[in-house]
Protein: Pimeloyl-ACP methyl ester carboxylesterase
Amino acid sequence: MSDFLLVHGSCHGAWCWRDVIPALEALGHSARAIDLPGQGADTTPVAEITLDLYARTILNALKGPTVVVGHSMAGYPISLAAERDPGRITRLIYLCAYVPADALSLAERRRQAPRQPLLPAIQKTADGLAFTIRPEMAEAVFYHDCPPGTVTYANARLGAQAILPQETRVALGANYAGVPRSYIRCNDDRTIPPEFQRTMTADWPAKDVTEMNTGHSPFFAAPVALAQMLSDIARPGT
Structure:
């Protein structure tokens, strides 16, 4: 069985994995989620939050050989973590996440997409260092296919997302290239266009790409199915 570390995307926290952790444990795995700096219970000041700090936070959470799952924005910090210390990461799993491109920041990578459905939902904070999601638009971009009560639960917890980590370019080399990786596309995603998810994985082996017919938040929309998919991907020999 595998040990999973679950890493959230923009504006979210460890709280978004509440239904996936018990589902993974029911399959015999160990699983835990973390708050990246500035999210959830973490109180790091926004001016101190960097992509490097994200990666160090992920590495500090590893207890041994670990399957690291990154949702959305977390595709960048999990990749940097693998470049810094590949020995303890047995596999990276990108869950409708941004796959880093050479010498591009996440923001630059995002702008390569053919459309930008998230932009109308974003509002910058007064200091210009972060952005938040307009509460009235959260359902449309993140949770349109999720169970009743999800939007209320999430809107009470969504936080401000530091901009600097997303504007930081990342250089990845042999360490990152040596870590096995898989991608889960979400075919009804209204945050990262599904067609762009296909573009980002166009040169990946077919065996390393799977799909779910959900929106951007399969951890709420289909947590049991997601846990089973993660378990299948992490199985030795896959």
Observations:
- The first strand starts at residue 3 and ends at 7.
- Strands lie at 3-7, 30-34, 66-71, 89-95, 122-124, 130-133, 161-162, 181-186, 209-212.
- The chain has a mean pLDDT of 97.
